[in-house]
Amino acid sequence: MKSIRVFLVTVILSVMTLIIFVAVLKGYQSSMNQADILFDKQLLETATLIAIFPTDKSVTRFNQKSTIAFQIWRKGELVATSTNTPLTGIAPLVPGFNYSNFNGYRWRTVAYFDSLNDSWVVAAERTDLRYALAENIILESVFPIFISIPLLGILIWIIVSRGLRPLRKFANELEGKQADDLSPLSYPFAYQELKQIGGSSNRLLGRLETSLLREKQFASDAAHELRTPICALKVQLHNLTGDMPESSNYTYELTDTVDRLGHVVEQILDLYRSSPDQFNATFRTIDLTALVQEVLAHEYEQFDRKNQTLEFEGEACCMLGDRFTLTTLLQNLLSNANKYTPTGGQIRVTVHKSSSGIDLTVADSGPGIPPRERQTVFERFYRIGRDRHASGESGCGLGLAIVQRIAALHDASISIGPAGFTSGTAFQVSFAVIHKSGL
Question: What percent of the chain has pLDDT over 90?
Fold first, then answer.
C-alpha cells in the first residue's frame, strides 16, 4: 500500500540530497581552485626566499628532503640546486607558473627572476601532495554535511508526519461514523486544503443521505402499500373459492401466486429492516438454542406437509444479539432447506459452542450447491438454475441475501459445505463473539 508520508519524505530527501551533492561538487571545484591559488602564492614566496641563498662558482647542492625542489640559474649556468632535482633545467626560465615531470612525479613549478643577484630561481612542489592536502581539508569540511543527511531525513519525517496529522484526524472522524450517520463532518478545518476536502465530503454525505432517504421511503412505502391489495386479493379469492367448482384449479393457482407475492413483499421488508442504516436494535442476552427450538416449533407444519424428517441437536448457548433479526435468519435458512429438500428428505439443525464462539448449522438432503456457485447464492435475486436445480419450488432470491446481512450485523460468518447426507448442503453461521460468562 502506498503512503503519502513515505512518498513525500522520499521525494524531499532525494531532492535535497541531489541539491547538496551538486552544491558540494561545485564547492569542491571552487575550493580546489582557491587552494591552487593559495599554494601557488606560497610557492612563489618560497622562491623569493630561496633567491637569498649564498652561492659560489661551483654548483652548490642543498640537502632537501621536503616536498619543495628548487634550482638557481645565473647567466645560463646552474649555480645551486636541491638534492631532489636533476642537474638539468626543470622548467623554462620564463616568469610564471608551469608543470614539469621529474623523479617520477608531476610538479608545479614557478620561475622567479632575482634582479639583485641577476639570477633565476625555479621552485617546484609535488602536485599529488598539494592535492591530497587540499582534498583532506575540503573533505573534512564536507563530511559533516553527508553525515547530516540521515538526521535530515528523520527531521523531514517528523515534519511531514505533523503536517499530515490533521488529515489523519479527519480520516479517523470519517472512519468513526456509524453506517446510519450521514451528518456533516464536525472536524474544524483550519487548513485550506482540508477545507476543500471537508466541504466536498460534506456535500457528498448530503447527496448520499438524500438518495438513501428516497430509497428507504420508496422501499418502505412500496412494501406497505402492496400489503393492502394483497390482503384484499386473498379475501376475494377466499370468497371466490366457494363459488367455483371443486375440480377447478384456477383459484388454487391464484392463491399460490398471491401467497408468493406476499412472501416477496415480506422479504423486501425484512431486507430493509436488516440494512445497517436501519438496524438500531439493542442487543440483549439470547439463548440461541431456545430460540431455534421456538422457531422449529412454529415452522414445523411446513416440514410435516412434505413428510420431512426434522432433527435438532444443541446445547445451551447464550449470546448477545437481536431476537427479531435472528428469528428472521433462522426462518429463512429453514425455509430454504424445506424448499429444496425433496418429500421424505432429512433436515438437521445443530447449535454448538466452538473455540471461537457459537456455530449454528442447518443441513438438508437436497440436491446440493456446486462449489463454484456457493458464493453467488448470497446475491440478491440470484437463484441457481432459475430455482435451485429445478426443484419445482418458487422463490424470490432474497432469503439468503437477508441471512448474510443479518449475520454481518452480528459479526458472524457464513460457510457452505457438505451436509453429511448422501447429498445436500449445510449452511453454517459462526458467531465470532463469545458470550460473557454468566449470561
Answer: 14
